[in-house]
Specification:
By secondary structure, the protein is of the alpha+beta class. It has eleven helices and seven strands. The chain is globular.
Amino acid sequence: MQEAASLLTFEVPKRRLDGGRYYRGKIASESTRSKKQRTYYVSSDAVGDVESYVASSRAWVIRRAQKAGRYDRLPEIRMLIEVTRGLKPKVRWCDRDGVIGEQELNLLTWQERMLLFEEGPHGPEPLWLWLNERGLPFQPSSWENVFRAANQRCERILTPPKHLRRDPHQVFAPYATVHSGRHSFALYMLVVLNYLMDQRFGLTPEERRDFRLLYGDPWFMVQNLLGHSSRETTVKHYLAPVADLQLRAMLASTDDDPVEAPMPELDAVFARIARESEGIQDIDSRLVSAAGDVA
């Protein structure tokens, strides 16, 4: 939660004119639990959504805050001077007293990141990406409330009226948390990487062995994507629901299953995993069943 919540505007990848399905960015080490810098990957659509947010609702709350003089009343503010290039970029700023300071971008704490501003066309603008309705940095812990409100709204709309306030273990609506998104990512990448190695690359057993020696197996790749120092953490806590499944056999039997975008060859695989594993939700099937019950 802290990793994504403390991003600065210039740390989000920009879409290129030549396109691309995924873009790559860096998570500063000080923002991670492991205190190690990590690469993250984001889809082109997600980058587009962020760009739309920056140009619309974010710009609107910033302008309102400027007109209200909200930034002028902040006890501390650091105006950006420059971000240096190189292997270890540094951020240089000037505070209200005219004192110049600098820190390696990778070592800025999330509290220090909240103080960074840049000069915009109408005055100071926060460099912190996610802002609240007052135009101030949205604190990492506040995202818990966002997910809680969304879950309550889903439950209220998707739970059939006759089941309201009944059995608490009978769930009709999807339930999501920040951490469940991380678990979903881990599961998705494990299945996709297994599929790529088994099907797309057309590797022989010998070539597959060589590929594993060079790059590691899918479990190792997912471990690196999550930033875990231990493979055991990845397997035991994140992928436990599918650790005992024979993924290759499952993938090999998907030819006759109905397919849809965005990864048609894997939709049926994920649906089957959700049916056969505890602790995994299939959002699509739940929405369809809920809509049918409500109707």
